Amino acid sequence: MQKLMTRKISTVALAGALAAGLALAAAAPPAGAQTDEETQRGLERFRQMLREDPWANPALLDADRGELLWTTAAGPKNATLEDCDLGLGPGVVDGAFAQLPRYFEDAGRVMDVETRILWCMQELQGVDVAAYVKRPHPSGGQPVKDVGAIATWVANRSEGEPFAPVLDDAAGRATVAMGEALFNRRSGPFDFSCATCHSASGQRIRLQELPHLSQPEEAQVAIAEWPAYRVSSTHVMTMQHRMYDCYWQMRMPQLEMGSEASVALIAYLVDKAAGGEIAAPGIKR
Amino acid sequence: MRTIAFAVALALAAGLPAAAFAQDEGPSTAEVDAVIEAAFPGLDEEWAARLAPDETMEQCNASANVPSDAVFEEIRARAAGTIVYPDDGVLVGSWENGEKLAQSGYGMRFSDYPPRRENGGNCYACHQLTPQEVSYGTLGPSLMGYGKLRDYSEEAVKAAYEKVYNPHMAFPCSMMPRFGTNGVLTIDQIKDIVALLMDPASPVNR
């Protein structure tokens, strides 16, 4: 409790500092060239503040919201999520994120953290998942939606642990292989695949550095921080949202949250990042 | 199963570690296509068409962008067949407008409909072009001095037009978008971009 209060105070202080002009425009366009430099400066200030006070990460407010959502009865069944099995048994949250994605017997498929939370909301609370999936991600300046807030909290409860996704069974291996095929698959009017932008080190789009995501060393560092507070859009962005946004850049349609493709890509990336130390929620450009 | 056993036998014969081959086979193209279709539900025809790689992309996907010699020639010839030249034969437009198009990444994203302005070419996302613009990407080679280095020759002008229209004619399985063939840019826009590359007055060459 003591810790929680301190966390809230320093986060509020940082939010104030940001509002007072750290050049983080709330309505920043995605990947806008003009805002690159400002964003970069903001990002550096941000990282420094976090070194001085790790509790200043605004994403921790969303993690707190996520915890509250987890423990508060809701939905047509008026139930909490406290019996949700994230892979380590009903209600076990500590360390669960580190072992995702994994195959879930009850659902009959491999799931990442967000897909699993959504599944629990449906099963335990009776939430209409189809309606949720219509608008699953926040627009710039809006707070992360409920599943993302819960995912932020769940991920934070594995902070410091190495990624050890359970993907060595048949379903896991098939999912990672699917993810790899999707990562390299080119289509759409720009002929892009994920590999177009993420399969070499040290490359950039404009000034934005592009991690080499099929390479473990770079994947470990990049993937470890998700979900992350995204400075350019001033909210927490989740991995499902990241996938959706990269497909947007690829001129592809809107990726369905929780789809097999979304889970396969995440499984492929986390498999590459295996062994990397989880540092979620992190901070991204 | 039989292919795996065969691969292992081959690997053993070649003295390679069998483990390198003893992995699960990847999903079939049909399985991957089905997963993609399920991930983007409820599309109209125009959007649904984006999900499917065309013949050239199928060949590039199947070969991890390193096609065999025969496929290389096939892709090159197909690309050449798609290029439409301006009726009057003039390939060079206005470099000023070309610079604007090179800066703009607007167009064809799902948030870009209904269109609010013309599509851009987003060349700076991947290329260095002018000394004035320091915010450039590095996925493609630097194009600074592009026309000057080629003596502004007629052949070089034509080649530049073709590379922007469909880069697979020069570089099969190129990572660069097919701006003309895929209908991203119009012929007039491509002429303006050619001017940016090839006009001696363009900042690319000064």
From TrEMBL, chain A:
Q: What's this protein's name?
A: L-cysteine S-thiosulfotransferase subunit SoxA
Q: Which residues form the Cytochrome c domain?
A: 174-285
List the record's Gene Ontology CC terms alphabetically: cytochrome complex; periplasmic space
Q: Which domain of life is it from?
A: Bacteria
Presence of keyword NAD: no
- In which family does this protein belong, per the annotation? Belongs to the SoxA family.
What keywords would UniProt list here? Answer: Electron transport, Heme, Iron, Metal-binding, Periplasm, Signal, Transferase, Transport
- Signal sequence, renumbered to the chain: 1-25
State where the protein is found.
Periplasm
A Pfam family of the record is SoxA-TsdA_cyt-c
Catalytic activity of the protein: L-cysteinyl-[SoxY protein] + thiosulfate + 2 Fe(III)-[cytochrome c] = S-sulfosulfanyl-L-cysteinyl-[SoxY protein] + 2 Fe(II)-[cytochrome c] + 2 H(+); S-sulfanyl-L-cysteinyl-[SoxY protein] + thiosulfate + 2 Fe(III)-[cytochrome c] = S-(2-sulfodisulfanyl)-L-cysteinyl-[SoxY protein] + 2 Fe(II)-[cytochrome c] + 2 H(+)
Keyword Signal recorded: yes
UniProt-recorded Gene Ontology molecular function terms: electron transfer activity; heme binding; metal ion binding; oxidoreductase activity, acting on a sulfur group of donors, cytochrome as acceptor; transferase activity
Taxonomic source organism: Salinarimonas ramus
* Subunit organization: Heterodimer of SoxA and SoxX.
- EC assignment: the record states 2.8.5.2
Q: What GO biological process terms are annotated to this protein in UniProt? A: sulfur oxidation
From TrEMBL, chain B:
Keywords, ordered alphabetically: Heme, Iron, Metal-binding, Signal
Any signal peptide, and if so, which residues?
Answer: 1-22
Any GO molecular function = heme binding
Q: Which domain of life is it from?
A: Bacteria
* Cytochrome c domain: residues covered: 93-201
The cross-references to InterPro entries, in alphabetical order and at most eight, read: Cyt_c-like_dom (IPR009056), Cyt_c-like_dom_sf (IPR036909), Thiosulf_SoxX (IPR030999), Thiosulf_SoxX_II (IPR016823)
This one is known as Sulfur oxidation c-type cytochrome SoxX
